[in-house]
Amino acid sequence: MTYFEFLAQYGDRILSGTLVTIGLTVLAAILAVVVALAAGLMRMAPNFAVRGVATVYIEIFRGTSLLVQLYWIFFVLPLFGITMEKFTAGFVAVGMNLGAYGAELVRGAILAVPKGQWEAGLALNMSPAKRMVRVILPQAVLIMLPGWGNLMIELLKGTALVALISVADLMFQVKQINGTTFMSAESFGTALIIYYVIARFMLTPSMRWLERFMRRKMGRA
Amino acid sequence: MMTNESMSDFPLKLEGDNVPMVSFRKVTKSSGSLVVLDALDLDVAEGEMVTVIGPSGSGKTTVLRMLMTLEKINSGVIYVDGEPLTHMPNGSGLVPADSRHLRKMRSKIGMCFQHFNLFPHMTALENCMEGPVHVLGLSRKEARERSEELLELVGMADKRDQHPSRLSGGQQQRVAIARAMAMRPKVMLFDEVTSALDPEVIGEVTNVIRKLVAEHNLTMLMVTHQMGFAKDISDRVCFFYGGSIEEQGTPEQLFGNPQKERTQQFLSAVKEAI
In degrees rounded to 5, what are phi and psi of residue A84? Predict the structure, then answer.
């Protein structure tokens, strides 16, 4: 079987796996951003308990293996009555894991906004929440975007692990194809290229575009 | 930390005729073992323009920052418009102000900074509208009118849609003045507003401040190194040294005939630098 015949026969399965991977990536990315923002802000709260919750979350999800977290969410949480569909468990695990890294990114970026901006907000008598939302965060976003570009690529690659709980993503499909055809080089080679193409020609350009867009909004085009 | 006993020396409110707009009463500020301000007493009358000069480290900027509540004080009380700023009445005594009281009192005060601190993600006009819309709750139309009027006053109306990164230092500082004025403060604080500017644009900022003095009945406190400007514009000049006021008086008195040796030394050193 030539590589073209291989593609002709298994192309639709590879494509459906790729679409599942992209879906997982998008959903996990949204979750990661939301969780990172929340945890990053909580880490700076004056309240000890609020700070504690965020610290525990970050420590657990950053300090342990993503694969173990995935198994926990899919196999162990049901024992406590929390059952998730495998696709959901997949993107939740990846999103929560990358969200923990993102939280530190958010915190670092917020602290990197010059002190004068905080003072100007106070001098205009803004409430702390208003000042955060209207003055600090828009500037922090620009600071943290390059870091998020990296995290998004990590996240995409992290989704490959969900094949281990039988989510029919790209990795799962090529493993199955390899299992029936034993064409390892073709199967895993194709997966390798597809992951690279998504990262290099979809994720990176869209993050760059976002950076340019934010820069323009700051009047720094 | 202060004891309750010493707090009873301070009235809950300043009442009667000629209540000063700003009043520092025995205000002390220290940071570690360093005493930044030592039992400062300073009154500023409504509509008065008071300039604070002195060597660096003399505590002059701290005076403004404490008034803007950017820095906490260690003891004493600051009154603004007759009401305590740093404290609030609780029964028959004063207790440290909570955030609600601070927000109420802060609305009387506006401040311009050495490094302008304009919001870089907003245009000049948006910078001016930000406070009126999102703090005072004005409609966008009202806020826009108010802001455009002020940008006109500072000569920046034609640059209203520019972001700060496209403006020179002098232009940014003029927008910053308009932004502070848009909140309609009773007291305006100018913290070395010309120190970060190129010499040739200092005039455009000092001219705006002159205009404010002439056209508005604002109470102003200004820290500056521009002695000529201070001499022209001030009702009173305070020379700070080592955390307290060494000497104060009208510009004619202080610049023309300084009494204290330290004042004379400082002024002659400044003159030599020019």
Answer: -125, 150
Domain at A21-166+197-217, CATH homologous superfamily: MetI-like (1.10.3720.10)
Percent of chain B with pLDDT over 90: 85
Average pLDDT over residues B35-54: 94
Q: What is the pTM of this model?
A: 0.89
Phi/psi class of residue B240: alpha, beta or left (left: φ > 0; alpha: ψ in -120 to 50)? beta
pLDDT at B1 over 60: no
- DSSP secondary structure string, B85-121? SSEEEETTEEEE--HHHHHHHHTTEEEE-TT----TT
Q: What's the pLDDT tens digit per position in A135-152?
A: 999 999 999 999 999 999
CA distance B120 to chain A (A): 6
Partner-chain residue, chosen from B115, B165, B183, that has the shortest CB–CB distance to A124: B183
Domain ranges of chain A: 21-166+197-217
Size of interface A-B (CB pairs under 8 A): 66
Tell me yes or no: is domain B4-108+185-273 CATH 3.40.50.1100: no
Q: Does B271 touch chain A (CB under 8 A)?
A: no
Contact present, B84 and B14 (Cβ < 8 Å) = no
Q: CB distance B163–A218 less than 8 Å? A: yes
Q: Where are the domains of chain B?
A: 4-108+185-273, 120-184
Q: Name the minimum distance, in Å, from the CA of B115 to any CA of chain A.
A: 8
pLDDT in tens, B52-91: 999 988 889 999 999 999 999 999 999 999 999 999 999 8
Pairwise CA distance, residues B123 & B160, whole Å: 7
At CB < 8 Å, which residues of chain A contact B? 114, 116-117, 119-120, 122-127, 130, 134-135, 138-139, 217-220
Q: Who among B106, B119, B120 is closest to A125 (CB)?
A: B106
